[in-house]
Amino acid sequence: MNNLSEKILKAYSINKDIKILVNYIKPSFLFKTNILTPIHLGRSIAKDPSKDGTITQDDLKWLYDNCIGDDDFNENISYTNRRVGFLTGTYWAYKNYDKLGNPEYFGSFGYRRLLDYDCLRNLEQYDLILPKKKDFKFESLKSQFISHHNQKLYDMAIKVFAKVHNNELSELKKYFEGTKGYFDELYIIKKDLFFIFCNWIFPLLFEYLKEPQIILNNNDYRDIGFIMERICGYYFDKLTKSDKIKYLETNVIITQKLTVNKDKINRELLAKLRKNTSL
């Protein structure tokens, strides 16, 4: 157990009306507290070796033992995870919000990236908490997207968006012409805004799923995932421009170097946290 992991778990164990899904596709350090809820994405694929074959039985057991799954309800979209990414977990929250305890705030993190825990200090002052924008300086978001992926994927992003939200197409293109944007699909958001976001994003996602898959470099299947990362960035950028929205930008904690948190270690740490759960 290192100082960073202990600080993260302690900070995200305070008494706040918030639940945050931590999205996993494989075993890693276990971020699990009364606030942090690990969710295994793509479980319906991973549990069937004939469909996936990229995860061992030991890894699958760890994920079952420590995470909820994104496939435990009839309308789940778990099977799309290898194309879609984080949104299969977000869809679970959208359809199963009561299972989270109907919190006033909802958040979405990755097991390798979390928002700095200092953002919780004055949580009630904000409607939305986001990572600091990435600034590509002399390269537009459009150019960066095309150079990292390809023109065909960008064209699909624009074509499908125009079908669903054509009234916002000019604003999306304006966002892509800028050099700064929100990435990683990391956020904490008030409950009412979360449901507005879901009602906006999922009709778009289902339209993208109708498109033939575009296989990217190195056999990367996340074509829709990369599109939706940018689309989510646009949506949150739009929210920050509203006078009615109070938002905060904060740092991102990168956790790739943390070791897997064994059950014994996690139990010992949580026992310590019960004695002191204030920041």
Question: Based on CA inertia axes, which overall geometry fits?
Answer: globular
Tell me the distance between the termini: 19 Å
Q: How many domains in all?
A: 1
Radius of gyration: 19 Å
Helix content: 40-55%
Residue ranges: pLDDT <50 for 5 or more in a row? Answer: 272-279
Largest sheet: 7 strands, mixed
Mean pLDDT: 91
Say how many strands there are. 11
Strand content: 15-25%
Structural class, from helix and strand content? alpha/beta
As laid out across the biggest beta sheet, the strand order is 3-2-1-4-9-6-10
- Provide the succession of SSEs: HEEHHEHHEEEEHHHEEHHEEH
Structure description:
The chain has 279 residues and is an alpha/beta fold. The protein contains eleven helices and eleven strands. The protein has one domain (3-275). The strands form three sheets. The chain has a seven-stranded mixed β-sheet with strand order 3-2-1-4-9-6-10, with helices on both faces. The protein has a two-stranded antiparallel sheet with strand order 5-11. A two-stranded antiparallel sheet has the order 7-8. The chain is globular, with a radius of gyration of 19 Å. Residues 272-279 have low confidence and may be disordered.
